[in-house]
Amino acid sequence: MNFFNLLRRVSLKHIRHQKARTIIAIFGIALGVASMTSIDIVNSSVIRSLEDSINRITGRAVLQVTGAESGFPESLLERVQAVPGVEYAVPMIETNANLAAGSERSFVVLGVDVLQDNKVRDYSVTDESADIPDPLLFLAKPDSILLTREMAKREGIAIDQKIQVQTVQGLKTFTVRGLLEPDGPAKALGGDIAIMDIYAAQLAFGKEGRIDRIDVSTLRGETLDTMKARIQAVLPEGYNIDTPAGRTRQIENLMARFRKSMDLISFMALFVGMYLIYNTVSISVVQRREIGILRALGTTQGQIIRLFLAETVVISVIASLLGVFLGLALAKLSITAVAQTVSSMYARSEVTELEFSRLNLLKDVCIGVFASIIAAAFPARSSTRIVPVSAIRSLPYSADAHLLNRTLKILSACFMLLAGVVIIIYKSVGPASSIRNSTTTTAAMIFLLLGISLATPLFLRWFIQAFRCFLAARLGAGGRLAGLNLQKNLSRNAVAVAAVFFSISLSVSSASMINSARRGLRDYIDSVERSDIIITSGHPLASAGAPTIPMPLSMARELEAVPGVQSADPFRKLFLNISGKRVLLEIIDELRWTKHNTCTITEGRREDLSAKMPGQDNVVVNEIVAARMGLKPGDSIVLPTPDGPKRFGVVAIIVSYASDSGVIVMDYRTYERHWRDNVADMFSVYVKPGSDIPAVRAAIQDRFRNKRKMFVLPSLEFRAEIKKLLDRSFVMNDAVNVLTLVIAGFGIVVTLLASVLERTREIGILRAIGMKRSQVSAVVIIESALLGMAGGLLGSAAGVLIGWINLEGFFRIDFGSSITYHIHYGSIAWALLLAIGLAVLAGLYPARRAAKTNITEALSYE
Amino acid sequence: MIELKHASKKYQQGGREVHALRDVSLNIRKGEFLSVMGPSGSGKSTLLNLIGGLDQPTSGEIFIDGRPLHGISDDELTLIRRRRVGFIFQFFNLLPILSAVENVSLPILLEGTPFSEIRPKAVALLEQMGLGERVEHRPEQLSGGEMQRVAICRALISNPAVLLADEPTGNLDSHTSEEIFLLLKSLNEQGQTIVMVTHDPKAAAYGTRIITLKDGALSEDISIGGK
Amino acid sequence: MSVKYAMLGILAEKDLHGYELKSSFDEKVGEFWSLNYGQIYSTLDRLEKEDLVTHDRQVQDKRPDRKIYSITKKGRKELDEWLAAPINRVRALRDEFFIKLVFTGTDNPGPVLDLIEKQKALYLRQMNHLTHQKIALKKKAKDPAALTTELLMDAGLFHAEADIKWLTLCEAKIKATLVKK
Ligand SMILES: Nc1ncnc2c1ncn2[C@@H]1O[C@H](COP(=O)(O)OP(=O)(O)O)[C@@H](O)[C@H]1O
Ligand SMILES: [Mg+2]
């Protein structure tokens, strides 16, 4: 048996002997890797499915021409078709619709040029109907629609059946002329696709004379770049000419923030897992007498370090593999929910299968192992400080102070300073600076977290000193002993405190952040939206471009005809592409809006709004746009319109949280003139004084019952709905908070268990000289409560700071600078209670174990 | 004062039964200094642990001052240990995190008495043992003999009915050992009942009565009566 | 042989006459050697012949003259040499017990074990006795000679302990051979 075999035996024995602790460490790392893996898989699956749908829908087209959300004039099609090198250029209308009956599922209606489209896309139609001998006939009947076989089967729809579909124009009846085999576009979006003739679709969806997209295939020998340039040359500014991959990238960008917050979460989870490994290894370093014996027998320091690292590798490989499988399971469980969220917030996605590569999984395993090794390296290194003599020492205890040394203090101070510097730089550069993004604030946050983590031993020492001064005496011998015990093993206990601190700071920060965002949003909505009833066609908070079905502007008059309605103000939102940035264009009825609206104007005069906006080529921009483009009232801004770039005057700068990339507000009449679009996404309904809001709501619902599907929400409910949505978008945060709390709880269990095991003899002594079981338990419980309290206090303080940083990094960019930070005091109280409660809970098992200590065995030496 | 009636103790060790103590009947009178001798593994510590209420007999009965130690709850047993018994161990078994005076005060601290009230008595005891200079020292700062004297103070602080010592000098040199024995002897002469376990005949010779255990059974009982 | 040096040692401290010499001897090493007056005087005679001690005559009223013995230079030198020289010889097993052990034989160990038991108990009793004497001595004695006495007592205790330990070993080994058979 060679030397390493011997070491291996020693290690394996040890792992076996410390089952509980090893399992917890494995669990911690596994959770970290699992969250990383699942987030990775979910994200790439969603993106992959979006990509797949896009590719299927684009077919053989290599370039896509898109304009504003409202579409663009079909006359542009001819211009594109005339560009040399273009093989085919086919128009498309892409819009959302709902089945009025059945599952009321929403689906995408593609309006295509029936004669031309098969040049770009492949369809295989099951044509069991005698009605359509050829596509021309299909064209001749404007109520014709093709559904996918899958959808028809799901909804129980047969060929030639008439279906009612919710469109901009209200409910329309179509006849299913055929079914599409799952091939080409029909396989996209999980089969939620219908095909219509483009002219019929224009009529049905209120897009007369306009198209949403041109799909272009090019002649062989032409490069994409030259073709892009040529097409660009014939089009007005503001049009996107993109490859399908480019569109995927757009969506990826759109999802980047979502992705970033998820990545942060998995980073945190992994970090906590690292804590556990660190903890486990440092405990075994402290506890293992055999290190001293091995050293005495001539094992070198290097061999000892390798022993620990080898152990860590074994544990972490197991843990990471476990984590990967757990991640796969998690991904499977959560993919539907995530896809739904993405669908309602960003873009329609239908994930049918998980997307992952073995290489990626291997990468996750490696990260897990690597993180564990880093975590184990510090305590393993400190194992070399164990002198051979310690094996023969009769007093195995000694106060450990090495974590309190100068280097640590300096390092901790450096990190905190760094965080401060980053924040100061961040605050001092203008809002348009490239530094101002969430990466910077994430860095500041990590610096701060590291700084505070390193300072935990120091903090714990102060905390315990304070405890001993003020409280210990009141808790009797148990309190005194608990304080002393914690002090004796400052570094290990500090790790437990750090774990608690970490998770508490996470929950306090997100609570404060959400609180601020919620209040900011609520104030904003209160100031902007003072109507009594809101009518929307899609989800109240869906971003522009999300699958909704707009309503015709003429509906305003219909609404005003309902008894009790004073006025109905239309509202439309869409994205403009201004020098590569998606800026939200809000279209409002200026005359009415100024009457009701009290939005905050940072620059400009309120009178100008009613004087200069209606019908004129003027706009109002929000702070983000103003800052980015350096605009002041009186300046002008060029916006891409379907007819080419147009210059608009800037009347005022306002506060708006509606989009993270800037908001421009325009009057409806101006919009109609330039965009030739007359639909609305939302109506704000004002009720006549003295009228009953629920009654009016019922009347509105009644009126549109069979004509149109829409949300008719009293403002209060609308706000509640928005709140719910906001909460939903933080549901992942909450899940991770719970997860980290659980992991922190494990951290405390491990720490206490280790200290109980290590103190077996001490507990034996105490029991021998007359300490009751309950008193022994009390000591352990007090200790764990103290750890929880210390972690909770530190975590609350850090959480308040981190919440602020995150607010700067994520929300302020989203919502503009006028959002103010509101600390959520309730959550701090909760967090403290939770930390202490959890700690006590975590202490129960070690306490029981301590109380059960067999006195005579504990006292018999070794 | 201490009475064992047919006390036996069995241990389950790897499926095998170990008879640590077999049917021991013994009567320890007040003021006696009993030395318990026997080779290692003969059950000396087991006997002492039974008398001190650290363990309960498998069968048989044990009484201290007429109170039974068997068939009572753990808490009651703990209170007996705290108030009626003082333990001295081979490895001193002081709490390393506490100072000498705190270690001495522990049994009374456990009663919930504030430290400030116990301290004078603990300090007086330490001074009596010649440790006046060592009151605030921690165990690691003390020599073996000093540690054992602190342990004796701890055992005495609650005025126990009996002082139980398990190889109290197993870890000390002859001279220091002798000092400890003389200390115990003088305590005995002041009327303290002592039961001391040892395999060292020199140590046993300090007793007023020497019993020998062999394979868990009482094999010899020499009563000399000191003078 | 050591009686000679013991007497030289006593005389090196102080000149003494025969009677005083005897009581001093008893006080110091009496636990281990008991000598009668005859032995004392014959030893003194021998020492005088070897020129290690001399004597003066002390005239007394009513009584016969007394010889006051004192150590000579040669005697002092020899004493110093003896004190400085380590003892080569291991303590002899003078005990009859060993002879008994030899003659009892180990074929039938019953009586041997009994004997060992009894012998051990005896030693233990002796040790107990000696220990209590020592404690008593420690309590009252203030004079410097008490220390030497105490040390001698300790030697006795250690010897007895060694014997007990040896007996215990005998017992264990005899039992072990029994088990083998
Ligand atoms: N907790 C225990 N479990 C199993 N066996 C034990 C235990 N404690 C003691 N023993 C056994 O009981 C016997 C007597 O032990 P002990 O009283 O410690 O002997 P001594 O103190 O005389 O050396 C020994 O054989 C020992 O192995
Ligand atoms: Mg023992």
What does the model show?
By secondary structure, chain A is of the alpha+beta class. Chain A folds into 4 domains: 1-58 and 258-394, no CATH class; 63-242, no CATH class; 456-530 and 717-802 and 810-862, no CATH class; 538-709, no CATH class. Chain B has helices spanning 44-51, 74-84, 100-109, 115-128, 144-156, 174-189, 201-204, and strands at residues 2-13, 16-28, 33-37, 59-64, 67-68, 85-88, 162-166, 193-197, 209-214, 217-223. In chain B, the strands form 2 sheets. A 6-stranded mixed β-sheet of chain B has the order 6-7-8-3-9-10, sandwiched between helices. In chain B, strands 2-1-4-5 form a 4-stranded antiparallel β-sheet, covered by helices on one side. In chain B, helix 3 runs parallel beside helix 5 and helix 5 packs parallel to helix 6 (174-189). Chain C is mainly α and 181 residues long. Chain C has 2 domains: 3-84, Winged helix-like DNA-binding domain superfamily/Winged helix DNA-binding domain (Arc Repressor Mutant, subunit A, Orthogonal Bundle); 96-180. In chain C, helix 1 crosses helix 4 (73-84). The longest helix of chain C is centred in the last third of the chain and has 36 residues, at 145-180. In chain C, 16% of the residues are buried. Chain A binds chain B through residues 394-395, 397-398, 473, 476-477, 480-481, 484-485, 487-488, 761-762, 764-775, 855-856, 859-861, and chain B through 45, 49, 52, 54-55, 74-75, 78-79, 81-83, 87, 89-91, 93-98, 102, 106-107, 109-110, 112, 114-115, 139-140, 154, 158, 171.
